[in-house]
Every structure is written in C-alpha cells, then in structure tokens.
Amino acid sequence: MIPRTPRPRERGIPEATVARLPVYLRALQALNERGTPTVSSEDLASVAGVNSAKLRKDLSHLGSYGTRGVGYDVDYLIYQISRELGLTQDWSVAIVGIGNLGRALANYGGFGTRGFRIAALLDADASVVGDKVAGLSVGHIDSLEAVVGDEAVSIGVIATPAAAAQGVCDRFVEAGVTSVLNFAPVVLNVPPGVDVRKVDLSIELQILAFHEQRKSDGHAGPELAGRAEDPA
C-alpha cells in the first residue's frame, strides 16, 4: 500500500501559508519556463509579491530551507509544493452551470497542466444539454450523482445562479464530494468535513473600488502594498 501524503493541515501548516503556496508555485513555474535553475528567497519573494522573511517561514513548513549562497532549487521546490498541494496526482472535476462563466472555466487550458481533469459538465437547461464545450458533451443535472461515481469526481465547481447553488452543493455533498469551488454569489452551508472555496468577483471589484477611492481622496497609505493573494 502506498503511504498517503498528509494534507497540509494535518502537518500543521497554517491556512495562510497554504493559501500562498499556489502563488509561489506559479512564480516558480514562470522561473522554470525561463530556464532559471535556482532562485534566492529575495528574488522569489519579489516575484510572488511577499516579503522574503514570510516566504522563508512558509517554505520551512515544507522542510525546505534552501542553500546558503545558492538559494532554492527551482525544480525541486516545484515538486515539493506540488506534492504538498496534492498536485502530483490528477483530480477529477465536475462543473455545474454551463453559462458564460462555466464555459470559460471549461475552456481554460491551465487545468490539465496543474493536476485537474475536467470530467463532466452539467446543466439544468435542456437547451444547453448536449452542447459540446471543450470537447465534452454537456449532461443534465439529473445525472450528477451518477457522474460523481463514474468519474470519481473529487471537486465540484458551482457556476450556477445563486438560487440554485445550495441545492447543487447539497447534491455534491450527498454524492460524496467534499471539496467545492463556488462562483455563485451566495454563502453555502455545508457539513463538517466539506471544504468550500468561494470566488466572488463583485467583492474583489468592490475592494479595488475602495482603494481607488482612497487614492483619489489622497489617503493612499502603506496598507495598499498588501495583495489579495497574500493573506496574513
């Protein structure tokens, strides 16, 4: 039996660190594409948009401390972070709600290179069912439970209108899905053991509007140096 890699929280890695790991991974992949073999903590922190002390502390949770005078091995650090995030295996994803947003998500080419396989597209609209999107035929929402079982779906993505989101989430959970990415503008209620990540573009725009207003009022300050990708 292959030993299971402990999840970040099981290893005592803080949630804020977990949230920054994908940012570091993206920066490292960009460096790797440019043929950079090693990177200092200062340079990696600059690319990732955090301070170097925070980056070194984050990476120490992975057991990676770099080499004095050399820095971090880019390839190995990519592997370490990918392993910690569970990206060294493929995760099957089902998207429910194949409107403009759902179609855009399905057509995003980056999932396949990052360990995610779009296994199913589902919608309640009969006029959408049967459409070909990103090489997949859109199925009816009635098949959700069967699809979760047949495709071993690990992550459910909800891109429906707000009114339908909780019902879809409930069905995902009842079918055994314990990780949900929610794009609907509503807070989902889930039982313990189910992880929900919410992506609300309107909230992000409102936060940017706040900062724009402060800058126009002449109140820009050090707090603007913080980034949404860099939780404390």
From TrEMBL:
Compartments, record wording: Cytoplasm
InterPro entries registered for this protein in UniProt: CoA-bd, NAD(P)-bd_dom_sf, Rex_actinobacterial-type, Rex_DNA-bd_C_dom, Tscrpt_rep_Rex, WH-like_DNA-bd_sf, WH_DNA-bd_sf
Similarity comment text for this entry: Belongs to the transcriptional regulatory Rex family.
Domain CoA-binding: start-end pairs: 86-187
Assembly: Homodimer.
Protein name: Redox-sensing transcriptional repressor Rex
Annotated signal peptide: none
Organism this protein belongs to: Nocardiopsis mangrovi
Keyword DNA-binding: yes
Keyword entries, A-Z: Cytoplasm, DNA-binding, NAD, Repressor, Transcription, Transcription regulation
Underlying gene: rex
Primary role: Modulates transcription in response to changes in cellular NADH/NAD(+) redox state.
Main subcellular location: cytoplasm
Binding site for NAD(+): 97-102
Record-annotated DNA-binding residue ranges: 23-62
Lineage, uppermost ranks: Bacteria, Bacillati, Actinomycetota, Actinomycetes, Streptosporangiales
